[in-house]
Design brief:
One of its GO terms (molecular function) is UDP-glucosyltransferase activity. It holds the Pfam family Glyco_transf_N. This is Glycosyltransferase. Its EC number is 2.4.1.-. This protein is of the alpha/beta class. It has 2 domains: 270 residues, Glycogen Phosphorylase B (Rossmann fold), CATH 3.40.50.2000; 191 residues, 3-Layer(aba) Sandwich (Rossmann fold). It is 48% helix and 13% strand. A 7-stranded parallel beta sheet has the order 3-2-1-4-5-8-9, with helices on both faces. The chain has a 6-stranded parallel beta sheet with strand order 12-11-10-13-14-15, with helices on both faces. A two-stranded antiparallel ribbon has the order 6-7. Helix 6 runs parallel beside helix 7. The radius of gyration is 24 Å and the shape is globular. The relative contact order is 0.11. The N terminus and C terminus are likely disordered.
């Protein structure tokens, strides 16, 4: 009887105890649109599952995220924007600055945020549950250790790229002696055959400063408690499994992040909405509404790539020569010269009715989700590729730097949903109008190969939506990630194999 009474008292005490506080995630994106946007999407995912999120950034970028803060406030969501002091002159990358010198300067400047971040974390009344930091912010590793907070790294690239880079580093393929080396070598340990050149890996990253940063970033991955990726198992399952085994720690595939963002206003203003456009979104939508289903090619090269006038002309002539309707996003900086502006105006007049040129910002998601879009000419940034595939839109691939070359290999050679602009995936070479005309015609054509490409892409799009739906792999992985920090505040999580086999 005494034992029964004690048990009953214990049950009463347990039932009356206060529930544990929601887990608190501190997210630290890299400055730059392509890195910040998916981290914001991840923040929304976490708060929708009951977590509290602090999105840490600099004052200039905090101003750009004001809409995020306003939306969270209206929805009474526990999502806050935390500003850390940082000189505004160095606050971010401007369009056209996509070169390794600018990237390295930014990466190294951000190390100065370590002190302010640690001060912020120590000032909190309760220690955060977890830090999720961009893999290009390796300085967060020391802060996490000092404060005693688990840390996950977020890699903005495809898992295919992340795994290739890890395997290449393990087998010494990233070592470079300064001499040109454009011979192809196979990356060992990959689930599929992958060949790269040493030049494509490292020819731009051979200075001592770059080598030191890259090694710091690798160490940041090695010492993290796990990884978060914006992908899904129905697209990159074999690479996620292999990446997790190679890291020896959990890898959480939670994407596509953006598919969980069902707020129409947020989708319509996602990205550089503060940049002016000569055509408003409603006008673009109305133009597309008048087009046949899957008839239009969308052309855009991300926020950083800047076309010189001579390359701009080749793109325009190639689109005209293809004979296909198109929507082409052109940056204002690309038409700064009077000659470029006059040329573009003449092209618009010549293609009126089947060509729409957008100068400035436009909602990429709103365009890719439109029924009239049948193809996308892209720079192969992972965000753009994921958005396109998730909407069942095949691509023409034109990589420019960084992870984009391996992303091209993934969509062209592994997934079979892309047409390389140069005829074969590989190092960048000058692109002329004949390349554009051929690739667009092949992508938008009606032959058996083109139809099979569209079928595959549609299937991946369906898998993407299944992954984020209740019971899908990404939905369940997110649930388990959040619950693991509710339970114990630790990163002792199940592996991907345990979760999904």
């Amino acid at each position: 009887m005494a034992h029964t009474e004690t048990t009953e008292k214990s049950m009463i005490l347990m039932s009356s105890a206060a529930p544990p506080p929601p887990p608190h995630f501190v997210l630290i994106p890299l400055i730059g649109q392509g890195h910040t946007i998916p981290m914001v999407d991840l923040a929304y995912l976490l708060v929708e599952r009951g977590a509290r999120v602090s999105l840490v950034t600099t004052p200039v970028n905090a101003a750009r995220l004001q809409g995020v803060a306003d939306r969270a406030r209206r929805a009474m969501q526990p999502l806050e924007i935390v500003e850390l002091p940082f000189p505004p002159a160095d606050d971010g990358l401007s369009p056209g600055s996509a070169n390794v010198d600018n990237f390295l300067r930014l990466f190294l400047d951000l190390y100065r945020l370590a002190g302010p971040l640690e001060a912020y974390l120590r000032a909190l009344p309760r220690r955060p549950s977890c830090i999720i930091s961009d893999s290009c912010n390796p300085w967060t590793a020391g802060v996490a250790r000092s404060v005693g907070v688990p840390r996950l790294f977020f890699h903005v690239a495809s898992c295919f790229y992340s795994l290739c880079k890890l395997k290449a580093a393990t087998h010494g393929l990233l070592l470079h002696d300064g001499n040109k080396d454009d011979a192809y070598v196979e990356v060992p340990g990959m689930p599929v055959r992958v060949e790269v050149t040493k030049d494509s890996w490292s020819s731009s990253y051979t200075t001592p400063e770059w080598e030191a940063f890259v090694e710091d970033a690798r160490d940041g991955m090695r010492t993290a408690d796990g990884a978060v990726l914006n992908t899904f198992l129905g697209l990159e399952g074999q690479f996620v499994k292999c990446f997790e085994a190679a890291l020896g720690k959990p890898v959480w595939a939670l994407g596509p992040f953006f598919l969980n963002n069902r707020d129409e206003d947020a989708v319509a203003t996602r990205g550089d909405k503060d940049k002016p456009s000569a055509v408003d979104q409603d006008a673009v939508t109305a133009w597309l509404d008048a087009m046949d289903e899957s008839a239009v090619t969308y052309v855009s090269f991300g926020s950083l790539v800047r076309m010189p006038p001579e390359q701009l002309y080749e793109v325009g002539h190639g689109l005209v020569d293809s004979g296909k309707p198109f929507v082409w996003v052109v940056k204002e900086s690309e038409t700064a010269s009077p000659e470029a502006r006059e040329w573009l105006q003449a092209l618009e007049a010549r293609t009126a009715g089947r060509g729409l040129v957008v100068r400035g910002w436009v909602s990429q998601l709103a365009i890719l989700s439109h029924r009239a879009i049948g193809g996308f000419v892209t720079h192969c940034g992972w965000n753009s590729l994921l958005e396109s595939v998730a909407h069942g839109v095949p691509v023409v691939t034109w990589p420019h730097f960084g992870d984009q070359f391996l992303n091209e290999q993934l969509v062209v050679e592994v997934l079979g949903v892309g047409v390389p602009v140069r005829g074969a995936a590989g190092p960048v070479v000058p692109v002329v109008r004949e390349h554009i005309e051929r690739a667009v015609s092949e992508l938008m054509g009606g032959g058996a190969v083109a139809q099979e490409r569209r079928r595959k892409c549609k299937e991946f799009g369906e898998r993407a939506h299944t992954a984020v739906a209740k019971g899908g792999s990404s939905h369940e992985n997110l649930t388990q990630l959040v619950h693991s920090f509710v339970r114990s505040g630790s990163t002792e999580q199940q592996t991907t194999q345990d979760r999904n086999c």
